[in-house]
Amino acid sequence: MTAVEERTGTTPGPEKEIGKARRRKEDARLITGKTTWTDNMVLPGMLHLAVVRSPVAHARITHVDVSAVREAPGVIAVFTGSDLAEEQGSLPCAWPVTPEMVNPGHPSIAVDQVNHVGEAVAVIVARSKTAAQDAVELADIDYEPLPVVLDMEEAVADGADLVHDHLESNTSYHFVFDAGEMGTGSDTDQAFADADVVVSRRLIQQRLIPAFMEPRSVVVQPQGDNYTMWSATQIPHILRVMAAMVTGIPEHKLRVVAPDVGGGFGGKLQVNPEEILCLLIARRLGKPVKWTETRSESLMTAHHGRDQIQYVDIAADREGNLKGLRVRLLADMGAYLRLITPGVPALGAFMYPGIYKFPAYRFECDGVFTNKVPTDAYRGAGRPEATFAIERIMDELAVELGMDPLELRRKNWINADEFPFTTVAGLAYDSGDYETATQQALELLGYDELRAEQQRRRESGDRVQLGIGISTFTEMCGLAPSRVLGSLSFGAGGWEHAAIRMLPTGKVEVVTGSTPHGQGHETAWSQLVADSLGVPFEDVEVLHGDTAISSRGLDTYGSRSLVVGGSAVVKAADKVIAKARKIAAHLLEASEDDLDFEAGKFSVRGTPGTGLGIQEIALAIFAAHNYPEGIEPSIDAEATFDPENFSFPHGTHLCAMEVDTETGFVKIRKYACVDDVGTIVNPLIVEGQVHGGLAQGIAQALYEEAVYDADGNLTTGTFVDYLVPSANDLPHFDTGNTVHSAPGNPIGAKGVGEAGCIASTPAVVNAALDAVRHLGVTDIRMPLTPERVWRAIHRGGDGGDRATAGSNAYGGAQTETTAGVSTDASSLGGDR
Amino acid sequence: MTRISVRVDGASYDDDVEPRTLLVHYLREQLGKVGTVVGCDTSNCGACTVHLDGEAVKSCTVLAVQADGAEVTTIEGVAGDGSGNGQLHPMQKAFHEMHGLQCGYCTPGMIMASLDLVKENPDPSEDEVREGIEGNLCRCTGYQNIVRAVQQAAAEMRGSDGNGNGHVAPAEVDTAAAPHVVGQA
Ligand code: FES
Ligand code: FES
Prior knowledge:
The structure holds 2 protein chains of 2 kinds.
Chain A: H1 27-30, E1 47-53, E2 59-65, H2 67-71, E3 75-80, H3 81-84, E4 113-114, E5 120-126, H4 129-135, E6 140-145, H5 152-155, E7 171-178, H6 179-182, H7 188-194, E8 197-208, E9 217-223, E10 226-231, H8 236-247, E11 254-257, H9 273-285, E12 289-292, H10 295-301, E13 305-316, E14 322-334, H11 343-348, E15 361-369, H12 383-401, H13 405-412, E16 421-422, E17 428-429, H14 434-445, H15 447-460, E18 464-474, H16 482-487, E19 496-502, E20 508-512, H17 521-533, E21 540-543, H18 561-588, E22 595-598, E23 601-604, E24 612-613, H19 614-623, E25 637-641, E26 650-660, E27 666-676, H20 683-702, E28 733-738, H21 755-772, H22 786-795, H23 808-811, H24 824-827
Parallel strand pairs in A: 1-12, 10-11, 14-15, 20-21, 27-28
Antiparallel strand pairs in A: 1-5, 2-4, 2-6, 3-5, 7-15, 8-13, 9-10, 9-12, 13-14, 16-17, 18-26, 19-20, 19-25, 22-23, 23-24, 26-27
Helix pairs in contact in A: 12-21, 17-18, 18-19, 20-21
Chain B: E1 2-8, E2 11-17, H1 23-30, E3 49-52, E4 55-58, E5 71-73, H2 90-97, H3 107-120, H4 126-132, H5 144-159
Parallel strand pairs in B: 1-5
Antiparallel strand pairs in B: 1-2, 3-4, 3-5
Helix pairs in contact in B: 2-5, 3-5
The structure holds FE2/S2 (inorganic) cluster (FES) (2 copies).
One FE2/S2 (inorganic) cluster is lined by residues 38-40, 43-48, 58, 60 of chain B.
């Protein structure tokens, strides 16, 4: 076996992988139906679970009789809350945002009280899924109704009914960030007292549903005292730790696998009740079990997102110089605190000042309990809400000052030569150029022509009016510096781990702790390693999503994968090269310092014709016949990367919107955006992430809302009512990029997963308002349904609720006798 | 139980099914054809789309007994002239080329629906593609690259009288990914 091969001449190195529009490796299995979704899994003797769920939002459970269930054909067992009460513990909340935060605890299965519709009250185990589901209706459970708390403003009023009657109020926490007190800004009250102009708005962030396409699914297999859990999750590593802590199963006896996962968007960043229940029941029965939800179950019980009332005040002088920003939030927690429920609005706290130089800023947030399913992360998590508020209020201020909205922004944004810039919220923005991105976006949109057309339509009183909406945004990504997370009381760090294994044949295994669910890690990580090690893209295999293979990791969320996880891969590759260098020096009989490493090959400087490829070294060190004394015979390496700062992607998003003033129908005429996400590893993937984000952000503006009726029933509980947009509901996107690399990581990437979703929503709403503001419209509540837009145009106000309270569209039958009666409160902006 | 005979992806099956069994459950649970997936319970998402005697159907809206005597093609039987192995179909290739998928959960249904669309309309415009795949939801891609993929596949399929071996004329579809990248740091 000759490990060292003589080579003559210099072979041209492979062209750079970073920046190449590589087609994805993942696709091969996904386009042929050879995918391993959790629900595909079949194990010998596997039993199937169906969950009996509460039909009421708030009640005491007075009587449970499951004897008929037990007798049903195919049923093996049934478990109620009291059967599991002793061992179920509480689902974890990892983010106590204040030391005083009240956490009522979150049982996986209700024992004596239910607090939202859809809460689990019994679990049926049967030989087949159909048998389990057939038995659900045989469960006989009596409920004694309690008053239902749904409206946040009512919930925080004195004497309000309580969601948890053992607590003093419906407020979980009061979180404050005051720039004056923190020393990052001046006194906010003073700034407002001194200002020429103050504009105040109450904005509504409606409740959304992540609606990943693959329903959640869990399989648990017990093997002696070991357990393997497969789950459609974003977070196998976090899930393993948390499930061990909740159930008392020792962590080293629990393996969690996320096989192919069909989307998450934050919705699968959770420790789900059903994951714990599967584990408990598999332990009880000693048999493998599977639970897969229906879409209706998913919409009703998987966590929701957003749902905030934002009171926003902005202060400026007459010339449009910003003086201060004040934000007060009511954030709907739902009935319980899940994994990061309370942290979502707190994460947004730092982003309300956006890209602007505010001298003063104060943020306050109340986390409020209601009898609804808990909220938690949904694409952007806190940052879309913040961006919406600041970009909407900037437009309102522009109107108040009679200024062009772009001029107002330009006057106040951070200039390219001011980076790095520490904002009033204390964040150090890393790099960027808002002016250039904006110029490019204006060109992409064809801004001047559209403005001229808008003028023409306005003057002629055209039935279809045109508006242009602007959103110049930034976000904090790359979650996150572990110490910063610690200072925010988050329960974990934000590092990421990677390992590189050099196989004897020269092939490379890359193990990443960041678990993908559609983002294309296998492709992008291969590109990173191909460049670092100088090996062919095809020779790299990326392993992930199994705690037995990838033992350390913090998974995928917060646009962190490439920024943190990719950086760990690059660092590990550096270590591989450093280890290989010693072997190369030994085999080439040269000093380490005289070796160059390029395109995967070590060569002795000034000695053409010498050279040893890193893939050859992998074989040499596998044989280990000839290597230096005093080192281990391996060039494998691992690395953990903990960023020192967040990264701050930014961009300018522009929407041109047509509004039919007679029907209230809105149509996006053109959408253009230029994003700066730092270094682009794969332009195809970056563009795809922007597209997908845009679709979800636009959907918040135009289509989606989780609506509860007066009894706390989710009336948008199927895809018939919860309007995930189709291809026909969305426009063509014109996207572009500027590139200012992030100084805080070796790749220079800033993160792209959430950009489109964060930036687009206010651009769309601003566009619609720009089209009809001259008709007396000041605000339109999201989503901009034709009904709301029409009402806003014809009756003023903000268009009110999605439908008249009490009507069928609003939520069908109600207990109150006002059904079908339109009142001012219900139709003109009253809140549910 | 009712006895049915079906051909699925080129193989024949005789099975007893419950009268209420949906085709998608028969495919997944009895035949192990798990390439076809379920995304909803109200026939809205199209994730379960297969071809029944050559027509695209949402297999969650068809009873297994209705497929008795029929020919079913799933995503697993699309490549290699129906064997499922070997050369990718131009539609599969185009989804790959155009990055028409991210998580891939909608993809089997999307490809099956798109094949039907292109059969009806071999040269669809962007709007016609958007309308044609309206019954299939994708939460990841924002659809733009799916539209590109369907147009590219249609062009390739036209190019060789439907044999799928032709080459797409580059001008016909907008293949530029991130065309405005101004430079790399
Ligand atoms: S599963 Fe058939 S349409 Fe959704
Ligand atoms: S690719 Fe994920 S749903 Fe379409």
